[in-house]
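Record minuted for completeness.

…
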Amino acid sequence: MLRVLNQVPEGLLQAGAEELEDLLGGPTLIHLEGGILEPLFVSTLLHGNEHSGLQAVQALLRRHAGGRELPRSLSWFIGNVAAARYHLRRLDGQPDYNRVWPGSAESGSPEAAMMARIVEDLRARRVFASVDVHNNTGLNPHYACVNRVDHRFLHLATLFSRTVVYFLRPLGVQSMAFAGLCPAVTVECGKSDQAFGAEHAEQFLDACLHLHEFPDHPVPDRDLDLFHTVATVKVPTRLSFGFDATDHDIRFSSDLDHLNFRELPAGTSLGRVRDADGLALEAWDEEGGEVGERFFRIEDGEIRTIRVFMPSMFTLDERVIRQDCLGYVMERYPLAGHPRD
């Protein structure tokens, strides 16, 4: 499945996401040599409807003479080009390209083997740092994610944003696979149709290419707002849902994504339910346990929060909700008393 190249194919730096499958033939890893040999690894289009990473690397390479004058080597993975043709996260029948990296609960697929091959290739090249570029389908600020509370990871993350999210679930994500090799982050660049997302990602990646090393000291607490993802929120498959006035088991608030990155007081309503018996939402913690009753209750026909927390990635995209999740539950992560490696 994987095509490996040592130069930028003609037309790639001008192509739209929907053109890549015809241009490349499938997922493609491109190695470009720069002034410092240890490469920056960048993955884009792990979800085919998230285009900011593609546009950022295209602009970055155009800035550096088409990739011929890079201050540091760059290894660029262009992922799910089949889904990108249709501007979809993934096609029906495909695995999620950001759930099948080494460490995933899903193994044995051709996609998982491809991701394992990429990790070993970059291990051999002594990868310097890893960046996975994503977009959201709901309203969210730009922020970075890490899987280790390590000063090198946090220095990399805060080059992109002072807002950083630490998470251990879901498994099989790119950043977690690379965390054992180098500082690794995921950057979330807002909605895919917002030009500033690509511009911000390009500026960040250019800064990464110019890094020679990571500081030995921790990021000052005043420069960092760190949150911890404690649960993934899902709609049970047996229940119908929507965001309008039609008849569903759950009718979510039409502005649900406006709650992202706001600390919600206990009692906040997320929507209404048709049947008041039983819990309407699932929440899965870092150990894979279902803990919905810790966060949600049904009261007067409404789904209400039980405790203070901050949601992220709450989305109105019904296909994404079914394929992945409704969003995540976060809590502030106090750095005091927590050693940073």
In short: The two ends are 37 Å apart (CA to CA).
